[in-house]
Amino acid sequence: MTRYAVIRVPTSGPPALIAAPNVFASAAEAAARVAAIEQGQLKQHHTYLDVVAFDGPLADAMAAEGIQI
To answer: Measured between alpha carbons, how far is residue 12 from residues 22, 25, 36, 40, 51 in Å?
Structure first.
């Protein structure tokens, strides 16, 4: 079953999971979480949020992609 994780991708440094909630059953739910976070930002940051699809255990999938948990 495919799930979707929301990660932050800084301009320098490795990508990492955002604070919980960070895993969703659908891409639409993950995109809504990204939109909710971005709506509350008052200034531009040196990072962006992204949605990553994965199957299997979260830790294994993130490690395979070089994403910190």
So the answer is: 21, 29, 24, 23, 18
